[in-house]
């Protein structure tokens, strides 16, 4: 990638740049997956090279692990880290309670395990990810391949019984084959348009035997760093209820602009 960033990439970049300031030397840091999290990984790589930041990173997917190593981060497994100081990740949607939909890139399982094993989770997002009610983005549900069609039928039955809007469930495809996650599972996307009670839906979905996990992150995220394409960054904190705002410059750094 070279030259001018698109407005959306500028927004993702400034969110990542700001969030990288929460990372301190000595920390064990969960590294999210996706295009926004990739900016974070690049920013951390830059801080390691330029400022001597010393951290151990736990990636949430094979592609994040690859990028993290490429930019010079020390990568360890969650089992080696056991517990993390902080996880920084992207999201597909967030609401006013900082509940999230994640898994657009299929990494929701590792992402939820890593975020839950962290003292703090910070989400980085462009402003378009903010919604009044979750559900506009299809909700990913990770299922084991064995009997996935029966699992999908059970999911659909539950959506009907809960009277959830939309109700359509589709197998995520990669070409003409089902998409396969890092854990060798499949993803069923639920096209719901609005999720009135995300907590209840999450609990009910996870009770179906073939369901491994779903992309609703409830009471996991502590802060959202929201980037705008003009360089403005807002930070919302669930505990302190604070909103801070700052303005970041775009930094022309060839290393940061490498393709994922
Ligand atoms: O599985 C993917 C992750 O949950 C991503 O963090 C999420 O889809 C957001 O991705 P992006 O930053 O590319 O919009």
From TrEMBL:
Its EC number is 5.3.1.6. The keyword Ubl conjugation does not apply. Pathway: Carbohydrate degradation; pentose phosphate pathway; D-ribose 5-phosphate from D-ribulose 5-phosphate (non-oxidative stage): step 1/1. The active site is at 111 (proton acceptor). GO terms for molecular function: ribose-5-phosphate isomerase activity. InterPro entries: NagB/RpiA_transferase-like (IPR037171), Ribose5P_isomerase_typA_subgr (IPR020672), Ribose5P_isomerase_type_A (IPR004788). The keyword Isomerase applies. Keywords: Isomerase. It catalyses: aldehydo-D-ribose 5-phosphate = D-ribulose 5-phosphate. It is an enzyme of class 5 (isomerase). CDD domains: RPI_A. Substrate binds at residues 33-36, 89-92, 102-105, 129. GO terms for biological process: D-ribose metabolic process; pentose-phosphate shunt, non-oxidative branch. GO terms for cellular component: cytosol. Belongs to the ribose 5-phosphate isomerase family. Homodimer. Catalyzes the reversible conversion of ribose-5-phosphate to ribulose 5-phosphate. This is Ribose-5-phosphate isomerase A. It comes from Sagittula salina. The lineage of its organism: Bacteria, Pseudomonadati, Pseudomonadota, Alphaproteobacteria, Rhodobacterales.
